[in-house]
Design brief:
single chain, 302 residues, mainly alpha
């Protein structure tokens, strides 16, 4: 305990050391997030397949031909990561974040197949975002809370980008952590503002979803988006929601237009909204007050 206290004291007294430590930890966290990103959707799909089989069996219908779900491990703490092509376990020396991928030139040591660039990108993103949080807040519990917020958001955003799923295993803990941090005085909003932010975040997208469905007969987004915006509202308070929604909508619209123009993608092809919400909420938490003040200063300038 004394050594842990001494380390924390050193980090709080030297902000640059705190930033370096957070960056290094971010690389390791990013490696774990890659496991979460790969295995959590797989576990969800297997669970859904199992529930479908149980329901069919309860109705007296054979479920023998129903797929069992995607192959591969689903545990977040084991077994060891392996090459998705040849199944060879990843050696410890080949599991150093970013560095190992560069040394192996993006290929498996055993079979030579290409390893997705997503792995080093997620690791680098976790480190870079962590560094920005450390520089913005400095050593202290607010930074620790913001780091948890950042890394959970990163995992949720990448999963949604890959699979168009926003797992409750990420959005609900993010929501409750935001509320608990506010109650403990460690968050970025008062308890009242956090509760109002969570309720308003969920309610706004719920209303938009049902209005869009009534007007078009289509579903414009999923319930995971409601839960994610509720979680963002719990962290930023209701005051941060306008910035979050404005930024996410603007970036989402620009990306959607770019995809249609340059990739020739049909307008009917869905685009996940979770990554844009995550980006908007993260920016709102770090710089929302400054952005709002700058906008008001510009808008009210005579």
């Amino acid at each position: 305990m004394e050594s842990t206290g001494a380390i924390w004291l050193a980090l709080t007294q030297h902000p640059w050391l705190f930033a370096v430590a957070v960056t290094a930890i971010g690389l390791v966290i990013g490696s774990f997030l890659n496991v979460v990103i790969a295995r959590l959707p797989r576990r969800m799909e297997r669970q859904w397949a199992q529930e479908c089989r149980e329901w069919l069996d309860s109705q007296g219908v054979s479920s023998a031909d129903l797929p069992a779900g995607p192959d591969g491990p689903t545990g977040l703490t084991g077994p060891r990561s392996a090459c998705p092509d040849c199944g060879a376990p990843i050696r410890a020396r080949d599991n150093i974040p970013v560095v190992s991928w560069l040394l192996l030139r993006g290929r498996c040591r055993d079979c030579g197949r290409a390893i997705s660039m997503r792995y080093p990108l997620v690791e680098a993103a976790a480190a870079l975002l962590g560094l920005l949080v450390a520089l913005q807040f400095g050593p202290g519990w607010p930074a620790v809370c913001a780091l948890a917020f950042t890394w959970l958001l990163l995992a949720a955003a990448v999963i949604d980008l890959r699979t168009m799923l926003l797992p409750d295993d990420l959005t609900l803990p993010l929501l409750w952590l935001g509320l608990l941090a506010a109650v403990a005085g460690l968050g970025f909003a008062s308890p009242t503002d956090a509760i109002l932010g969570a309720a308003a975040g969920y309610g706004v997208l719920w209303a938009v979803y049902h209005a869009f469905r009534l007007l078009t007969g289509k579903e414009g987004m999923g319930y995971g988006d409601f839960k994610l915006l509720a979680a963002l509202g719990a962290w930023t308070g209701w005051q941060g929601l306008p910035v979050t929604i404005l930024l996410s909508s603007a970036v989402g619209a620009l990306v959607g237009i770019a995809v249609m123009l340059f990739l020739r993608q049909e307008r009917s092809v869905p685009i996940p909204f979770g990554p844009f919400l995550a980006a908007g909420g993260w920016i709102a938490l770090l710089w929302g007050d400054a952005l709002t003040a700058a906008y008001l200063d510009w808008a009210l300038r005579p």
